[in-house]
Amino acid sequence: xxxxxxxxxLVPVDLADGSEKAAEYASMLAKIHGAKLHVIHVVDLSxxxxxxxxxxxxxxxxxxxxxxxxxxxxxxxxxxxxEIEFDILKGVPYRAILSYINEKGIDVVVMGSYGKGSVxxxxxxxxxxRVMRKSPCPVLVVPPER
Length: 146
Description:
The chain is α/β, with parallel strands linked by helices. The protein is built from four helices and five strands.
């Protein structure tokens, strides 16, 4: 069933330039629909990264640093918005995002078209592409500013 308005909007951010336009679109949609905005950042602890992030202390430092970076990002990107929920997740980014969508009953996802890794910049980005294919809700993909 299609709703007549969005109530919960998710914007996953990688804290890089590619997320800024997505944040603007998500903010606009949240204002128009009076929706709650969910802003998440996923600390990548996938098999590709695990060898470089060993040890609980290093993982905790990464999570803490990500939380601080998200707070700074949010301060500049989401001024004047009503209800916002911020979360730092850990794991494989697309899996963490899909899990969050299901857990929170997200109505629409707004994502940048590519992440900060050069491999992810091929086509529309592996995380965005996987979320688009597997998401139970619509995904708005925002290209970077040119």
